[in-house]
Amino acid sequence: GIGFLVMTTWFTLQVFERIQEMVRILDRHSVARQELLVENIQMERLSKLDPLTQLYNRQALADYLARVIEVCQHHALDLHLAVVDVDDFKQINDSFGHDVGDLVLKGVAELMRQQLPTDHFVARYGGEEFVVLGIGIPFHTFYEQMERLRVQVSAQPLTARPVTVSIGIHTHVPGETAAQLFRYADQNLYWSKGQGKNQVRTSWDGDPQRPDDPPQAPALT
What is the pTM of this model? Predict the structure, then answer.
């Protein structure tokens, strides 16, 4: 009678409270999982960014370049790679200090964000060297973009004396690896440096001639 009803009611309340507690636990676990997921996404993003310039880092470049070569070859899209190097950067550090050197790097990175199309992939390769990838645009368009970037950098008062960049460009040829693509552009950068700096050199300038198989192509990882 009444005792059974009381016991049944008590038992029902206990089950209900237990269910509520389980729901609260599951909710906490769900929130925790969501927070962990967001944190993992943020950590993954941070792992791909250079902390000084907030551009993509070298590892992100390596991961992206390997994939983008496959896509561009499959869809017959042009792929251009530019290596951008701050001229006489050691002298900047020696003359003004490393804090100013860091400001120069951040200033160049910000100009790249402002001047280059948002669909370009821009990374800090290391030190004072940056890499830009242009996809699906004519060579002359990419060249003009790099030339405008060079002019803009030299016009900015980043230090007490003008800062310039040298740039080497290479357009991917079917069959070239990521390392070869970078190597050809990097060679053009060094030719740019050797010809007086503050200029853009490409594989199609006639001199230097594009080598058939550059030895010891640097790895991107």
Answer: 0.75
